[in-house]
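Batch manifest, entry 17 of 40.
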Amino acid sequence: MTYQSSLCANAFSQQTFIVTGGGSGIGRCIAHELAALGAQVIIFGRTEEKLQRVKLEIEQDGGQCAYRVGDIRDSDAV
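Output type: structure tokens
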């Protein structure tokens, strides 16, 4: 079964989104969805290996993604 978004293709073209917790779970899914709809996505999380993996997944699907490592509970990191 192939997933198809309820939003129109390129709905977020020319836009950039920051997704916290982008290395796993709901954050990962949101990052994939936004990128699939044309957004530039920046994922933020605590574990670099997870963020690297999600970045690679998104890029392999044709999306644009960057990542930053940090803990959102640390205001200096944010």
